[in-house]
């Protein structure tokens, strides 16, 4: 696989294709929202669908590095940034649903709800940590930050953890779904074991 | 990695909102439309189509004069958005799976501190009751609410039928336990059978209601056929479904949700916007069937029934006895 060579046109095609694929959940959610197809509890349905896709894109973007290792090809890495930005995109939609539909943009509502709902605090925290990663995802920032860039972007492991706890905390009883996401996360983070060993070892 | 939600099937399949102020004809027409739609979807999903609704009309009942009639939640949502873990934990599970529940014949065992214990046939119980309609708001602990036109009779009139003794301080209700009929009971999500209970004075309050139907017809299985409790000032999980046993006791019974998470689900479970669930705020509720952009509803103390029930809790610290 490593021997494959692609032209600029090939890459443009691959990237466009992946971009459109990543946009499909958004199009489906939007279609359902504007055609009254979100069911009995539309706000919650939007929360779940945007939240699910945030976590999925987070995990998909975390899959690229292991894939590089397994296939000994840099091909997957070329999509990592786009996938990470889609995670940010769906997280932003998730936050927007909360701000506009759930809280009606009312600061009073938020001041009532946030202190009483620990899972919201975790979700907001995860989003705040996601912001610098989105902002520094461009090539210029990578050059500017140098080695620090990688350290900064390792925040994604913490964000994944916060996202998972957020999911568990809002789940009433049936933990099947958050457990599936946790299982996948553990597998993906296991690939980073040498890093974690160094990280904890240096303390 | 991409996980598909079971519940999406039913959610996306719901018939658009109708005008429920209109005649029964419209309601049953839209129901047929919905039934047709959802059976097709279920066939496509490889699920056996079965009787989704009891469908039998209840002819003789006193209609309610409640002003809440203008806020009724569409029939489609009342009968497809259900928490009934005996048939699965997703909201759309009960409507698809509850057809396995056999509601005829049905009997209720009456036990404990009572002068007339015994096993009562539901038919015999109903013969002694005048059915009436009650339109109540149902507030779920998950911060959503719906307005349902129940049909049934007051719990107090049923209790009087059994003549509890002076020792009866609590009344405990038990749901049917039969994993053959209730496949959700094969999973250990809750301890089966489901048990709920009220203090006797709560049970004797005129608002406490035993429902055998909704929207003018026999109770659909997924809503707790053939006999369920409705206590409108408490979170929905108190309103136990498919009751087979009523026991009167001197001591406070242990109830299902309270058993698995007593910090989250109190025995009283009175609707109270001032007392947050440990994991989420209870100040506002999403109105089932409302448009996406309509703001949430402010949750009312005792779900709006404070005038009728607040006196039951006089002097009690409701933050402690939540």
- The residue-averaged pLDDT of chain A reads 94
Output the CATH class name of chain B.
Answer: Alpha Beta
User: Which two chains share the most extensive interface?
Assistant: A-B, 38 and 37 residues
Category from helices, strands and their pairing of chain B = alpha+beta
Structural class of chain A: mainly alpha
| Major sheet summary line of chain A | none
Number of strand elements of chain B = 12
Helix and strand string of chain A, N-terminal first?
HHHHHHHHHH
Described by the principal axes of the CA atoms, the overall outline of chain B is globular
**Domain module count of chain A:** 1
The CATH superfamily title of chain B = Oxidoreductase, molybdopterin-binding domain
Residue share in β-strands of chain A: under 5%
Order of helices and strands of chain B: HHHHEEHEEHEEHEEEEHEEH
CATH architecture of chain B: Alpha-Beta Complex
What's the number of domains of chain B?
A: 1
Helical residue percent band of chain B? 10-25%
Percent of residues in helices of chain A: over 70%
Strand content of chain B: 15-25%
- Please give the number of β-strands of chain A: 0
Spans of chain B with pLDDT under 50 lasting ≥5 residues? 1-53
Which geometry of chain A do the CA atoms define? Answer: globular
What does this structure look like?
The complex is a heterodimer of chains A (203) and B (322). With 203 residues, chain A is mostly helical. Chain A has one domain. Chain A is built from 10 helices and no strands. The relative contact order of chain A is 0.09. With 322 residues, chain B is of the alpha+beta class. The model of chain B is unreliable at 1-53 (pLDDT under 50). Chain B has a single domain (55-313), classed as Sulfite Oxidase, Chain A, domain 2 (Alpha-Beta Complex). Chain B is built from 9 helices and 12 strands. In chain B, a hairpin with a 3-residue loop joins strand 3 (132-140) and strand 4 (144-154). Chain B has helices at 8-11, 24-44, 75-78, 93-97, 122-127, 155-162, 200-204, 256-260, 306-309; strands at residues 107-112, 118-121, 132-140, 144-154, 170-175, 195-199, 209-214, 217-218, 228-230, 243-249, 284-287, 297-298. Helix content of chain B is 19%, strand content 20%. Classes of the chains: A mainly alpha (203), B alpha+beta (322). At the A-B interface, helix 2, helix 4 and helix 9 of A face loops of B.
